[in-house]
Amino acid sequence: MAEVDASAERLKSTADEIVALLKQVIIGQDRAMQEVLTAFFAGGHCMITGVPGVAKTLLVESLSKIMDLSFKRIQFTPDLMPSDITGTEILEEDMTTGRRELRFVPGPVFANIVMADEINRTPPKTQAALLESMQEKQVTLGGRTYPLEMPFFVLATQIPFEQEGTYPLPEAQQDRFMFNVRMDYLNEGDEVAVVKRSTGFSEVELTPLISKADLLAYQDLILKAQVPESLVDYIVELVSSSRPGNANAPDFVNEYIAWGAGLRASQYIVLGAKSRAAMSGRMVASAEDVRAVMEPVMRHRIGLSFRADVDKVTVEDVIGRLVENMPVPAAAG
After folding, report:
1. What residue ranges define each of the domains in the chain, with the CATH number in brackets?
2. Model confidence, pTM
């Protein structure tokens, strides 16, 4: 047990060091940085949503430089094809024998960190090219399966769907992402600091802090963290209450929600709470850890009804009301 606690302390120290480095490059997005790191150490894929110019791409690129992992960036555009992501087979001829055979040329998805930049700029057909990679950690082409090297993360950025030239991600695609992190406009003071830094001579060198072996060890450590049984019961009950027609769903759920969160929401809330606890040097998750990851896990797993749109009710409003309607049990707090 002492060894596990020591490992948690090392993870805390590493996470703090990463955040300190990121803050040298990114100003005013502390919560987003913390949420992305929580998903990263838990081994989950992460979606980062925000308008252009709030440092979504910069955050992912900076994180990739801190990790000693292979990194590939895919710029999603309307003309991007699935083979541009997964790879393709080409016909080659052996010049000595004249024999022709197909050779697989891996696409950019064959990397430890894949940045899917502006993923909702491309149609669903191309978005779906990531489904098998994100879930099964492999690519199947021409009847053959090619495993991806572990660890494997997809860090995707997307712009709000209200903007022109976007294609909403199918529910199955969204469900593969552990978190949907929001990055908003900066306050005036932070924006002034960004303008000064970006228009002057300022260079920060980011060097790798974590090896592949260290990261895999931290992921195993997080799985060993504990969540009190009463807290797990609470999570499952709260998630199920987001589903219209469910026996324990409050009236506003049936009014404002078209479809609620599924099983993966409960799993990712538990895993996210474990990750947040371990990153704080603790091996037992608390109710505060659960509350901290509830919104990024649930945000993209709840579909609002037309009535919610009319009444200008957001998905964050609904999640807040769900938590208010079902307080954390005292024994789990």
Report:
1. 1-224 (3.40.50.300), 225-325 (1.10.8.80)
2. 0.91
